[in-house]
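HECT-type E3 ubiquitin transferase, Gasterosteus aculeatus aculeatus. Tokens?
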Amino acid sequence: MDGEHYALSGVERERERLPPIYNSSAPAAFGRGAKQPFPSLGSFISTLSQRREAGGRGVAGGMTGTLSGTLSGTLSGTLSGTQWLRHGRELPPICSDVRQKHRLSIDTLPPEVKAPFPSDPILPPRTKTTKEFQEDMERAVQSGDWREVREFYLTTFDSFIEINAAFKREANGSFNTIDDSGVNAKFVNAVYDALLSTPQDIQKSVLKGIINSLLREWKGPRTKDDLRAYFILVQNPQYSSTSTYVIYAHLLRQIAALSEADHHFLVHWLKKLSARRFRQPVERLLQFISTRLFPAEPDELPPLAKCSWWIPSATKVLGLFNAANSVSSAPIMPFTDFYNITLEHIDFMEEYRTWQNYGNSNRFSFCQFPFILSTVVKKAIIQKDSEQQMISQARQSLVSKVSRRQRVDMNLLFLNIKVRRAQLLSDSLDELTRKRCDLKKKLRVTFVGEAGLDMGGLTKEWFLLLVRQIFHTDYVLRRPPLVISTRVSL
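Tokens:
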């Protein structure tokens, strides 16, 4: 009995170290009653602290450990606390050495368990210079042995890493600024200028390497080296041939899908190109759009329904070149060179209606990119838009009158102006000021004291007289004489 009493006292002492377990009844402890909520972590820790202070066992490191150490020391093991309750067993005592065993830092883990952070790839060393490449080309042309040149093109365009290794001025330099792309432009120009004069198998190997690069990098760029690769690939002169349009379209699609920050870098890198190198990809993009809209042969390209993303991607990339031309201190090329005359032969009013209905959403319309529309197309669109607004304003006025049960007057469909010939300018300004809400309606002019219905002739006469008076010397709106301006300049 004494031994049993001593054992029970030891158990009671161990139980005193633990927080109380709230059970409504004995069966509940064995899982045969209503389940009670397990005490929260805050109450658990506070109760445990109180118990240790009451027992005079202030363990210095007991409760000053991290949250992860406390959880590991109390709840880790084969069965959780809830499982212990379900099986009717007592929780094991919490010892300081147990807590310390579970306080593992990531520094103590074995190397194979630690997950390394992704880093920029190390570029392989490439030492070929522009002069050496040109010498290789000269030897190949003279001897007919293209093996060395073939190996260079095959290796260079095999991946984005190889492209950067070949054309980057410093292999592992960062160049993460908009002011400097880090690309050896002279070397790029030499390689591309010589490409079209190489045998067909070399040109095909370059295209095959570009396909592999694009497939490998489909998830998007991770570093500025990827942007540099896009910047170099978009200058490839091979895209002038329709046989390469499928590859070209996928390249344009990936460039168009880049983030706005990446586009910002590309725009500032593109504006650093020379006028000739800048114009060439712009002309290829315009030709790509025109050929896709009106192919020379029906079977020359895939069906338009299967590649509807070609034109939007090309137009968006062309927008990057237009932005680069705009932000340049002096325009690299005239803005009229971005016009695509082919668009004058499409249903541009349908494009306009699409733009009106969907705005700048994912539904593509050439009206989202006005830089590509010629003056003829813009004039027609503005004229049609003006007519639609006139009809809309007239309809609103008519519906307003009918809804208020007022007599409908046909004059409310027009912007009616009554002027006196002697006071033409002042009367016109007064009328336009008073009838601002009707400015989008069709114009109808009446001269006071003169009978007549304006069928267009009176409006033309009003415009002619108004322009003459506006530029009359009395109003000081006419351009100064040439003699006066010459004297001022002297």
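DSSP finds 21 helices and two strands in the chain.
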